[in-house]
Amino acid sequence: MLALLILAVGVAIVIGGILGLRLHAFLALLVAAIAVTTLTPHDIRFRYQLLEVSVVPEPTSEDGVWHLDVSSERRLEGTRFYHVHFEDKTPKIVGHLTVERTETLRENREVAVARSEKPNAEWADGDIAVHPLDWRAGEKKSSATVGERVASSFGSTCTKIGILIALAAIIGVCLLESGAADRIVRSAINVCGEKGAPFAFVGSGFLLGIPVFFDTVFYLMIPLGKALRVRTGRNYLLYILTIVAGGTMAHSLVPPTPGPLLVAGELGVDIGLMILMGMAVGLVASSAGMAFAYWANSRNEVPLRESGEFKLADLERQLKRDTSQLPSLALSLTPIVLPVIFIAGGTLFKQVAGSTDSELSMLIATLGNKNIALAIAAGVSLLLAAKYRMPDERSLRDILQGALSSGGVIILITAAGGAFGASMKQTGVADLLSTPDGSPIRLLVIAFLITMAIRTAQGSATVAMITAVGILASFADPTRLGCHPVYLALAIGCGSKPVAWMADSGFWVICKMSGMTETEGLRYISPLSIIMGLSGLAATLVAASLFPMI
Fold first, then answer.
1. In the 3-class helix/strand/coil scheme, how is 49-87 assigned residue by residue?
2. Distance CA 364, CA 523 (A)
3. How far, in Å, are 144, 245, 413 from residue 462 at the CA level?
4. Positive or negative, the Cα torsion across 495, 497, 501, 507?
5. Which of 6-20, 57-71, 235-249 has the highest mean pLDDT?
6. Which of 5, 19, 38, 342 has its CA 20 to 30 A from that of 281?
7. What is the DSSP string of 204-239?
8. At what angle do helices 329-353 and 370-388 cross, to 10 degrees?
9. ω into residue 256 within 30 of 0, thus cis?
10. Dihedral sign of CA atoms 156, 158, 164, 167 in order
11. What are the CA-CA distances from residue 464 to residues 4, 11, 141, 251 (Å)?
12. Backbone angles phi, psi at 81, to 5 degrees
């Protein structure tokens, strides 16, 4: 119950600070992270650190001998692991395991063979094996000061998204300054017409969301929505929501995005099957999201507001340019398509060729890194801006200054959101969830609810999927689940959508990049995430009932 109380305090600080006290989102999230970290007891923090690096031994036919699935450097002969038992969430060392040798199992998986110092030692439910170095590292991390722990999670989030956001901000601004965004919009309207633009946004967002993180997809596409809003004078909310509806579902359902890739691997689901089923369920969910977008847009309006990276007057002048002054469609698409090709190509090459030390493999891996791919795309977009920007307008230095100023604010907000999410994870909120046996439909619904609870509590869809699959992996056996485990993976993916709110870095990216207020985000983005998650779950349940595949 303590975790629920801490969760309530964190949520109250975020919502009350932003909506009640009108605090900047960065400050509200940072205060919430500090409060949650302060309220979480040392034993719970230590337990979390140990579970992050622990191993659950697998019994063998020989008494007192266990298999440990650990990395090669931790399974050397003679290495001793602690047998850790939790008494009211307080970790206690109750024995030791000594690695005797390495063994290859039938599924070609190498494990360490370890013998307990007590041949008749029993492992209670929840017991773990921990390397002594990991134990000491966990003690150090959990004993750090509140400021150190918050700063560490803040920095960890910056490591993941800092460069990405800065480069994507440059790409977005340069697409506007060069007229490339306007060229793409004009071409799309010529092909699809204004009425077909939302369909183009959903389809493009979904395809881009397969190899690229949702945040990156939104960074790349929102300038197009802004340009189309200025050109048509209406439907800005529709454009925002359709971009979100496309990109966000692929992020949770279709490998090689990390979340569904890891879930498929943990549940033993073939990647090809996960891609096909994820695309099918994702398209159903995205279609439901688009229907909500049309409904919301018909009853409400979100204005196109000023933001740090561009002024409305500048954008309007851009859109009055003659078509002959704009870059070609191929050049305009290059900053968007290039990172997709590099990232997807790197992932595909790794899947086909595996891990090799050849120069070609290293080159493809380097180009396929999302930061490098975005850096190359940013370089191309800068060249476009240098050649095609309107004369007597802002210099490239001013363009970059505005882009990085805007990107810096977004980095601060998303990093603070990451710190808040990390502090929530350490409370042990996932321990409050249980998974009773039942029918396939019941188990899939429970999987959805578990993932949704974790997602809502800490914000990250990927973290929610990773956490949930750890809880639910034991249900992957088709005979126990009652259907193919791909449906369990899909239920987890759909559960990672609701509820997008202030704890979610993507929520802040959408609001800040689009110019939506926090209230508008809660009014439109949060319901959109719920509708898409539920519709995806409904499609999963129908498919599992009609085609259980067992």
1. HHHHHCECCEECCCCCEEEECCCHHHCCCCCEEEEEEEE
2. 43
3. 26, 17, 18
4. positive
5. 235-249
6. 342
7. HHHHHHTTS-HHHHHHHHHHHHHHHHHHHSS-HHHH
8. 170
9. yes
10. negative
11. 17, 17, 22, 13
12. -110, 145
Q: How many CB atoms lie under 10 A from the CB of residue 400?
A: 19
Which has more pLDDT, 107 or 490?
Answer: 490
- Note the pLDDT of residue 527: 95
DSSP 95-124: EEEEEEEEEE-TTS-EEEEEEESSTT----
What H or E segment, with its residue span, contains residue 130?
strand 128-130
Give the full edge-to-edge strand order of the sheet including 65-68.
58-59, 65-68, 110-116, 90-104, 80-87, 128-130
**Which residues make Cβ contacts (< 8 Å) with residue 50, sequence separation at least 6?**
84, 91, 128, 130, 134, 135, 138
59: left (phi over 0), alpha (psi -120 to 50) or beta: beta
User: Which element (helix H / strand E) includes 167?
Assistant: helix 146-178
Helix (H) or strand (E) segment spanning residue 486: helix 485-495
Pairwise CA distance, residues 85 & 92, whole Å: 5
Q: How far apart are CA 185 and CA 348, in angstroms?
A: 30
pTM summary value: 0.69
Average of pLDDT values for 102-128?
Answer: 76
Tell me what the pLDDT averaged over the chain comes to: 81
- The length of the chain in residues reads 550
Nearest CA to 238 out of 185, 194, 192, 284 is that of 194
* The two three-digit tokens of residue 411, written as one number: 């980095």
Q: Is the pLDDT of residue 281 over 90?
A: yes
3-state class (DSSP) for residue 310: strand
Q: Report the C-alpha gap between 303 and 236 in whole angstroms.
A: 7
225 contacts: CB under 8 Å, gap ≥ 6: 201, 236, 239, 240, 243, 514
